[in-house]
Amino acid sequence: MKRTLGTCYYPEHWPEEMWAADARRMADAGLTWVRIGEFAWSRLEPSPGDLQFEWLDRAIDVLGQAGLKIVLGTPTATPPRWLVARHPGMLAVDAEGRPRGFGSRRHYCFSHEGYREECDRIVQLFSKRYGGNTHVAAWQTDNEYGCHDTTLSYSEAACEAFREWLKDRYGSIEALNRAWGNVFWSMEYGSFDEIDLPNLTVTEPNPSHALAFRRFSSDQVASFNRRQTDIIRTHSDAPIGHNFMGRITEFDHFKVGDDLDIATWDSYPLGFLEDRVGADEAHQRAFVRQGDPDFQAFHHDLYRSVGKGRWWVMEQQPGPVNWAPYNPAPLPGMMRLWAWEAFAHGAEAVCYFRWRQAPFAQEQMHAGMLRPDNADAPALLEARQVAEELQDTPDVFIAQSEIALIFDFDADFAWATQPHGAGLNYFQIVFDAYKALRKLGLSVDIIRAETRDFSDYKIILAPGLIYMPHDLKSALSEVDAHVVLGPRTAARTADMVIPVPLPPDMPGLDVTVSCVESVRPDMPMPLLGGGNFIGYREELEGSADIVLEMETGQPAAMRSGNLTYVGGVCDETAWTRLFKNLCADAGLPTMPLTGGVRCREAGDLRIWTNYGSEPADTPAGRIEAAGVLFEEL
Ligand code: GAL
Question: Is 117 a catalytic residue?
Answer without folding.
Answer: no
